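agent> fetching stored inputs for the adenosine-5'-triphosphate docking request
agent> found them:
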Amino acid sequence: MATIQLQVVSPEKQICDKEISMLIVRSTGGELGILPRHAPLITGLIPHAMRIKSDGQESLMAIAGGFMEVTPTKITVLASAAEEPEQIDVNRAQAAYARAKQRIEAFKAAPAQNEDIDIDRAEAALARAKARLIATGTSFN
Ligand code: ATP
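agent> prediction call returned; pasting tokens
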């Protein structure tokens, strides 16, 4: 079966370098499925759980956001942070989720009294926490 190399790096380390059969990501332009011999492409990635298919199995990897470069033989993901499910501290992600959600709700309920809340930052933190909870199969509401 044809494969394509997937390399995922963050400013801190290399998270993955392996041959895969398909990658499904959420780019700034929508969902993309990348197969071997894909046309060259560069795009931004939003926080989400990437789906990686290899050896007939599907696994997830949390991406906090970043960029992806695709050539016919290689996918490079430059992530601000990325974790495989077993690297994720679920309690920490749940706490980040609750914190962000509380800030967003407080801001929406009374924007004038909560001018100090950076709503874009809270929304981004919520999206990163959601990506980590989804990657670990943890439910949230
Ligand atoms: P927090 O508010 O909990 O710090 P964050 O979304 O602000 O979360 P990031 O800025 O995306 O965190 O990541 C900073 C570093 O912490 C990265 O190295 C990332 O891999 C790591 N990290 C963040 N959250 C978790 C988690 N729940 N489990 C393991 N590592 C995490």
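agent> quick read of the result: The helical segments are 90-109, 119-135.
agent> awaiting further instructions
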